[in-house]
Each structure stands twice: as C-alpha cells, then as structure tokens.
Amino acid sequence: MVFSSLMFMCIFLPIVLIAYNLSKNLTYKNTVLIIASLFFYAWGEPIWVVLLIFSAFVDYINGRIIDKYYERAGATIALVSSLVINLGLLAMFKYSGFFIENINSFLHTSIPNPNFKLPIGISFYTFQTLSYTIDMYRGKTRVQKSFLGFLAYVSMFPQLVAGPIVRYAEIAPQLDSRQTTLEDVSSGACRFVIGLSKKVLLANVLYELITAFQQSRDLSVLYFWLYAVSFALQLYFDFSGYSDMAIGLGRI
CA-based Rg of the chain, rounded to a whole angstrom? Predict the structure, then answer.
C-alpha cells in the first residue's frame, strides 16, 4: 500500500483517523497506531510482519536489561545481543545470497541459496531499534517500560517502509504525552497534499517520459541530456513527495 493509492487515501487513512480520535486516552491512541501500522505493513508483507514484531521485542527486552544493569557487564552483554541479532538478521536477508554465491564460485561447492525475499523496510526498523539500545547504553535516553509504546515507535506507518530513520530519543516524549491541535492537522494535511502533487503530477508523469526515452532509438546528445534531466527530476520529486506525505501524516 502506497500513500498515493486510492486504497490508502479513501479507505485506510479515514478509518485510522476516525478510530484514532475516538478517545483521548494515550494508550488507546498508541494501540490504534500499532494495529493500523501492522495492517499497513502486512498489506505488502503478510509473513514478515512477525519479523518486525520480533525485532521490536528483542530490543525492548535488551533495553530493559541495559536499564537494570546500567554501566555494568549485563548492559554490555545486552547491547552486544542487540547488535548481533539485529545486524545478523539484516545480513541474512540482504547478503546471504551474495555470500553463498561467492563461496560456491571460489570453493566450487554447491551450497543451496535460500533466496530470501527481502522484507520491506527491514533496514529502517532495524536501525531504529538499534538506535534505542545504543542510546540507552550511552545514557542518552530513558528506558521505555511499555512494549506497546516501543512498538508504536518502531512500527509507525508513515515512516515504516521507506524511512526516514527516527532516533528514539527524538520521539520518546511523544510516546508518553502528546496533543494534536487543529493547526497540526491543517499543516499536516497541506504538507501531505503538496507531497501527493509532487508524486502524482510530477514524478509519475516524468516516469512515463523516461519510459518513452528508454524505448526510443534516438542517440543524439539532446536526447541523452533530456533523459538525464528527466531521470534526475523523477527521482527527486518521487522521494521529496514521499517525504512530504510522511511528514504531513506524522504532523496530523
């Protein structure tokens, strides 16, 4: 599910906003965000949503251990555990095929390649959870005692699948206390519309132009310049538009 799809704008987002504002209780609001975010992620990755929850749980537990044994050996062990498990999972899904192919090539072995399908957003939520345990170990943030609160931070759907990576210390105060004003909603909605316009009216149209260029047999200098400029602008407006939509949703 992408932000510019009709499914997201006409069904998912209205339901989430209505459900989110039914109560002023923060635990309720965080729970709504978690359910919505997990559904949003499962829409594209129904299996690997378990990996997301597991990654969050591992670092939640390691964070509690670091807090309990701060500046002692137990805290160091918990930090190492966090690094090994998270980076190990990331390496397994992103680079296991590459390493196995090279081993087979150099050693003439026939180790089967697992060909793992890369879970969406694994790099983003892995480094987000790591930022928590690292900041905990360095004494730069306080422990999050609520797993629901921590999972809300990790799984927040506006930045879950494509970032940006948000350090826990930046968002921690809002997990325990936050208010949404009419100004927040208005500003966020405007930012979302600006991002949507960049994505739909500019990036998508430029993509069609790039596709036409790729199918052309014109090899002139002007052709290559137009192709290069179109490609650069398409990338810019695509990422810029997505970022604006994510920021707008977060503000709302």
Answer: 22
Amino acid at 229: V
Q: How many helices (H) and strands (E) does the chain have?
A: 11, 0
Rounded distance between C-alpha atoms, residue 136 and residue 152, angstroms: 18
Dump pLDDT digits (tens) for 153-182: 999 998 887 767 788 888 888 888 888 889
Which residue, 74, 58, 15, 23, is CA-closest to 39? 15
247: amino acid identity, one letter:
I
CA distance to 22, 83, 226, 228, per residue, from 222 (Å): 57, 50, 6, 10
What phi, psi does 69 have (nearest 5°)? -115, 35
Which residues neighbour 5 within 8 Å (Cβ) at sequence distance 6 or greater? none
> What is the per-residue pLDDT across 39-95, written as a single tens digit (0 to 9) for each?
998 887 788 889 999 999 999 999 999 999 988 899 999 999 999 999 988 888 877
CA separation for the pair 249, 252 (Å, rounded): 5
SS3 26: helix
Q: Provide the angle, in degrees to the nearest 10, between the axes of the packed helices 13-20 and 26-44.
A: 160
- pLDDT at residue number 221: 84
Q: What gap in Å lies between CA 34 and CA 32, rounded to an integer? A: 5
